[in-house]
Amino acid sequence: MEAGFSEMRNELQSRDALWRRMQLECQQLHTELLKIREYKDMQEIQIKHQASCVQLTEQLENKNAELLLLAQSQEHHREELNTIRNHVYREEQSHCSEQERMKTEISDLTEELHQKEITIATIMEKASLLERQLKMELEIKDKLLAKQQLLDFRYKVIKSENIHLKEMV
C-alpha cells in the first residue's frame, strides 16, 4: 500500500512539474505575444513593411492557437492533478483510519491478554494451594492408614490372645 502511495506521489510531482513547465511556457508565449504585438504596431506605422505584418499576424495566430491548446491541456492536467490529489487524500484517510482501528484492536487484544495472564496467575496460585492441601490430606490419610493397620494388627493379636485364653480356660 505504501508503494502505491509513493507511486501516486511521484505521479503527482511529475504532473505538477509538467503543469509548472506549461505555465512557464504560457508566460513565455504571452511575453512573446506582447513582443509580437509591439512589433506589429511598429510595422503598421511603417507601411512599407506590410508584408512582415502579415507574417507576424500569422505567427501570432499560430501562437494564439498554440496558447489555446496549451491552456486546454493545462486545464486537463489540472483536473487530472486534482483527481489524483483527491485519490491520494482518500487513500491516506483510509490508511489512517485503518491504522487507528488496528491500534484500537491491538490495545483491546493487549488488555485481553493482560486479563488472561492475571487469570492464569490466579489459577496457578489456586492450583498450588490445592496441591499443598492435597499433599497435606494425603499425609494425614497415610498416617491414619498406618494407625488403622496398626490397630488392625493389635486387634488380631488381642483376638488371637483371647482365643488362646478361651482355649486355656
TrEMBL record:
Residues 99-126 form a coiled coil. Keywords: Coiled coil, Cytoplasm. GO terms for cellular component: centriole; cytoplasm; deuterosome. It is found in: Cytoplasm. It comes from the Eukaryota. GO terms for biological process: centriole replication; de novo centriole assembly involved in multi-ciliated epithelial cell differentiation. This is DEUP1 protein. It comes from Spizaetus tyrannus (black hawk-eagle). The lineage of its organism: Eukaryota, Metazoa, Chordata, Craniata, Vertebrata.
